[in-house]
Amino acid sequence: MTFSESLAQALEGASQVILVGIGNELNGDDGFGVRAAEEIGTFGRMKSIMAHTVPENFISRIAAEKPTHVIFADAAILDAPSGTLQLIEFGDMARMRTMTHRIPLSKIIERLLSLHECKVLIVGVQPKSMEVGAPLSEEVSKAVEDLAGFLRQNLS
Predict the structure, then answer these.
(1) Which of 1, 20, 73, 80 is the most exposed place for a label (fewest CB within 10 A)?
(2) 87-99: pLDDT as tens digits
(3) H-type helices in the chain, by residue range?
(4) CATH architecture of residue range(s) 3-155
């Protein structure tokens, strides 16, 4: 199953989706999640939050919105070609190694689920470079565009 097919299936029945962009945009491709949230914005059934490196600060706000689905977008070591997008469900987080959070994403998700029951998804992208001061690589920039296009098409 392709990434798009997996994401479409995971979003079935979604009436309100929040995308939480995680990462440090000063560290090259680690800025994927924040850039995706910025690009996607708010439209239709979709709302984006740029959480940067402190997603834990937004959990109460997310829960208060009562979304049916929450997508965390982050750079992750996926052992795949640069720019590869993968859908990772909460129960399968062990295969995702993230970069810049002080608190593990699994703990943040557990806290969210204790406040509000919803379907939680993680979209990871394989970074090419995490060099300080570097821009997003072409591969990860394309992944941002692909994710934004998919969500606009399917959640308008």
Answers:
(1) 1
(2) 987 776 765 555 5
(3) 3-10, 32-40, 59-65, 105-115, 138-155
(4) 3-Layer(aba) Sandwich (3.40)
